[in-house]
Amino acid sequence: MHDYRFEQATRCYEQGQFLQAIxxxxxxxxxxxNNADYHGLLAAILLSQKRIHAAEHEIKIALQxxxxxxxxxxxxxxxxxLNKQMNKALEICDEALRIDPNFVDALLLKGxxxxxxKQRPQQLDHIEQALxxxxxxAQTLTALGSYYHEIGDQGKAEQVxxxxxxxxxxxxxxxxxxxxxxxxxxxxxxxxxHARFSIxxxxxxxxxxxxxxxxxxxQNWIIGGWWRLNSKLSKLGxxxxxxxxxVGYLTFNLLSQVLEDLGYPVASSVVSIAWLALVAYSWxxxxxxxxxxxxxxxxxxxxxDY
Amino acid sequence: xxNNHSDYVIIDEPKPSALSHLAVxxxxxxxxxxxxxxxxxxxxxxxxxxxxxxxLFNGYVLGSTTWKKEWxxxxxxxxxxxxxxxxxxxxxxAFMQAVPYVFIMINAVxxxxxxxxxxxxxxxxxxxxxxxxxxx
Lengths: 306, 136
What we know:
The complex is a heterodimer of chains A (306) and B (136).
Chain A: H1 4-14, H2 18-31, H3 36-48, H4 52-65, H5 70-82, H6 86-99, H7 104-116, H8 120-133, H9 138-151, H10 154-167, H11 172-184, H12 188-201, H13 206-219, H14 221-233, H15 238-261, H16 265-298
Helix pairs in contact in A: 1-2, 2-3, 3-4, 3-5, 4-5, 5-6, 5-7, 6-7, 7-8, 7-9, 8-9, 9-10, 9-11, 10-11, 11-12, 11-13, 12-13, 13-14, 14-16, 15-16
Chain B: H1 26-39, H2 46-62, H3 67-94, H4 99-133
């Protein structure tokens, strides 16, 4: 039987109140440091916050206490996926499904992994298996909608997303999916509605914030242009990002120096000025963009219990 | 049972020192490293070692969980810069035309070191800032 605080922490997690949930779990773990469920829930929250290394540490402890819990295995598979260890993630999902063949979340995660690897038939197959087990779930419908969105069939994606929203209008994933579909279709106004709704329901939802940022970037090409490039660069690791930036630095500066040595001082100056302009743009654009975003976010009315 | 929840620490949470009020966003250190030398050249080759020293100090005061990695990065970068400065000295005597190119390489190594250390420290700083704003 769980401490009532664990139920409270679970509720806080489900409502996106991560700080409160973590605070309660710290209390619980102080009293019972070997409890697998507490470590498991903490791992799930840390995963939502994208604190992968810490989530990995917590789930390891949880699995040492209970290696046969399908939910703990599911979280471990999520972590492996975020660490880009796709084969390992699939193996862990399979282990969870061996223990509980009707574990819908594990089927959906396998679908997501196949989707990441662009193995579309396998992705659809697992989503359909999940749908056969839980046909009226907003979560499974959202997964199907995401599939159609990823393969470019926005019409079908929208149809499925609307079904998901009719089942559970406040489902954040479904709202974010709908927002992304509408954004691709150019319907900025309605995409914004879904983004705003998602953020007011859960201000810590990174997917909702990303959708909102993408919408704002579309509306302002000059400032938003750097945000879109930055979004792509942020997928690189720290060292890879540094190398990309240094290659840019070396390209411009070596070219400028070579032009000067060859007797083209004007061309050399043009290249140097272009580099400085690019650096200045990259430094100025992002803070201005974040300031504009924050100004918009301040106008939001978050749900009362947040 | 006594409630000792304050004993449980999540491993990626920074452990700020008593000087944590001196911690700054590591991106400011990056900007300073690039902008300050445009207006003022720090003495004793400070433009090469001051940003690295400041990054390490910043990591210490905010209790960065990646402090050892930051030390390795700054150490490796510092050694690479020193080696290139020796090369610069040798080249300056033999091939004057190559001096600007060696200087560009030194700057590239310096910026790469600073970028990598800053981005590594940034995740600890963001958590430090998030927890500080939440009152933890």
